[in-house]
Amino acid sequence: MKTPPRQGKKPDEDILAGMRASNPAGAALLDRHRAQADLALALRSLRKANGMNQSDLRRASEELGRPLTQSVISALESPTAALPNLDGIVRYAAACGAKVELSFTLGHNDDSDVYRVALS
To answer: Which residue, among 60, 89, 56, has the nearest Cα to 72 in the 3D structure?
Structure first.
């Protein structure tokens, strides 16, 4: 059964809070690499929202002919790992039945200068 995504919170804020409490040095690393942490936790939330564990995701990626290894999945979900390449993100999302959309905004508060591209 799919769990609906939580509203009004960044992905897995409770996990980040726990990490901060247990490891202040790790918290500082997360702060320096906030984009990587947000992306990793969003991917993990996507997988969990689909009721999948990492092995399920690996099998789904293989069935699509775009295999991800267990170590790659773990790295994609690691909030302290290096920012993953776009291909890995797209393959991960596809295995979860999702698509990736990139947005580029030119500094305005409205959508007048937003450019979007969907990747699959």
So the answer is: 89
